[in-house]
Design goal:
alpha+beta; four-stranded antiparallel β-sheet; 4 strands; 42% helix; globular
Length: 102
């Protein structure tokens, strides 16, 4: 399927705002991989967990449906990019992550 294109500009702006407003929890699960959970959903937040892949200092993909079907980056990719410490940790190698956990 292709990504939707109608109303692109307002959709992208809305996604950027949601990435800033909503409450997310981040876990760097491996080098270049961040597990993100949208805690804005309260008791249903476990149903809103996704994996964001990081490469070359930016979030490049997400396992959420929006990343596949909508233009631009999804709110999960944008939320990861908004958190400098998360981006730095995700960009570390597996050896650096293991060393930091000791």
């Amino acid at each position: 399927m292709s990504k939707a294109t109608s109303g692109t500009e307002s959709s992208i702006e809305r996604t950027e705002r949601r990435a800033q407003w909503e409450s997310f929890a981040f876990t760097v699960s491996a080098a270049n991989v961040v597990k993100i959970e949208n805690q804005s959903y309260g008791d249903e937040s476990a149903e809103h967990r996704y994996l964001v892949n990081v490469a070359d200092g930016e979030a490049v993909s997400c396992s959420c449906p929006a990343d596949e079907y909508h233009p631009g980056k999804c709110k999960h990719c944008l939320a990861v990019e908004n958190e400098t410490a998360v981006m730095q940790a995700a960009s570390a190698s597996n050896d650096e992550l293991a060393e930091a956990c000791q």
